[in-house]
Amino acid sequence: MRQTALSFGFLILAFLIIHRLSQYSYFRGFLSLELIISLFGVIFFALGLYFSKKYFWRQLGSAAAAQTAGQTGPAEGTVDEARIRELGISAREMEILSLIALGHSNLEIAEQLFLSESTIKKHVSSILVKLDARRRTQAVRVAKDLGILA
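The structure assignment produced for this chain is given below.
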């Protein structure tokens, strides 16, 4: 938390310094207004790339690790294989259910599994029927309650 507060404090300080320098340069006639706006755009674009790389890709990496753990099979005793067979849920449906639990949309799941979006919709409908759920979030909650999803 302290590191985040310091990072944003330094960003604000840098922004204020750049702002003052651009004001000075504009009023002295060294820079045009278009150039100053372009410089700010480039700076904020670079900051956006930096924070995207720092935060988004870290979350994506942890989600991929969780998905990989789900594919190789979680620790013993956390998933009830007998219940999965009893409900008639296929391995592909379990894979899609785990991706739904990670918050992926149908399109994202389709791209990740190299399937069409309509195929994913059919699998999701089948999952909802087998788990007696109306929504995807309800299906995830029911699956966790039944012990078929870690």
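Interim note for the steering committee: Residues 2-70 form one domain. The mean pLDDT is 80.
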